[in-house]
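Annual report, structural modelling task.

Input specification for the manganese (II) ion complex:
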Amino acid sequence: MKKDDIKHIKQLLSEPKSIVVVPHKNPDGDAIGSSLGLYHYLKQFGHKIVIIAPNDYPDFLKWMPAEESVMIYDNQTEASDLIIDQADVIFTLDFNALNRIGNMEAVVTKSRAVKIMIDHHQQPDGYATYTYSDVSMSSTCEMVYNFINMLEDTDHINAEIATCLYTGIMTDTGSFRFPSTTSQTHKVIAALIEKGANNAQIHTNIYDTSSYNQLQLLGCALRNLKVLPEYNTAYITLSQDELNTYNFKKGDTEGFVNYGLSLKGIVFAAIFIESQQDQIIKVSLRSKGDFSVNEFSRAHFEGGGHINAAGGKSDLTMEATVEKFIRILPTYKHVLNL
Ligand code: 5GP
Ligand code: MN
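The model returned the following structure:
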């Protein structure tokens, strides 16, 4: 972000404003953590500030400070429309194209508010007035920390902010193990612990909340895991029937896709999850090394994301989706066999 941009934003926020913070659809730990971190930061300056998430998110995120104040657009559409309409400033966090906010796209596009994007995904769109985009960053939460730092305000980081930002950095880095984790990330994490983030408690809050059904569903997913050794690829399917058997709730399949990558030698893992409600197969993709699942998802599954983590969807049946996936792989054989 340019020095001038920071100067303008400082000026913009020097008087109380009506601010809306928007994370992406199906928000994850980084999306909710960065939104709440920014919320607790801005709240100290007398702004009127509301987080509006496009849709609901998993229970394992519903403990962060002020989480209960987050509005869900799909459940509170009229009230949200009014607030967005009257906003002076809209922060968009952890996404970079307005088609990532589902039913909110029209009202946010139409809004005349100053838009500020903070995001670390590939290929940002140019919709924002101010864009802070950096694909080398571990997480949007790390960027919100940097943003506060650029505003010369780290003194204002309290335990609430630290807790929310720690959470998103932790979830987006696979607990600090993905290559996006830098020494700088660890420095930010150290600063957040010093500001009051309780690291052990946060890990427990996020990762030790499985239900019995969820572990049984994981068992089912692992039984369905298929390996394609020729392409160093593994994939998992979960049908709606299987989800129903284990009383699936939003978030229950979080992290399942990573089990494919835990197999020795596997560099590309996918999970295909049927959603009868949305009439799609939700696709999640992960890779190790240079194989870009962002490019793969953009080319074949109407999605995108990062080089090593991306998502998308398929309008075909599960069987046809898997068939398509297997049919595409030979094209990438050379990159998958490095
Ligand atoms: P997940 O597989 O966990 O849903 O998502 C992995 C990454 O890809 C996340 O950073 C997420 O924001 C991004 N992502 C997931 N689904 C989509 C999608 O449909 N379109 C785009 N552009 N990105 C996605
Ligand atoms: Mn993120």
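The two ends are 36 Å apart (CA to CA).
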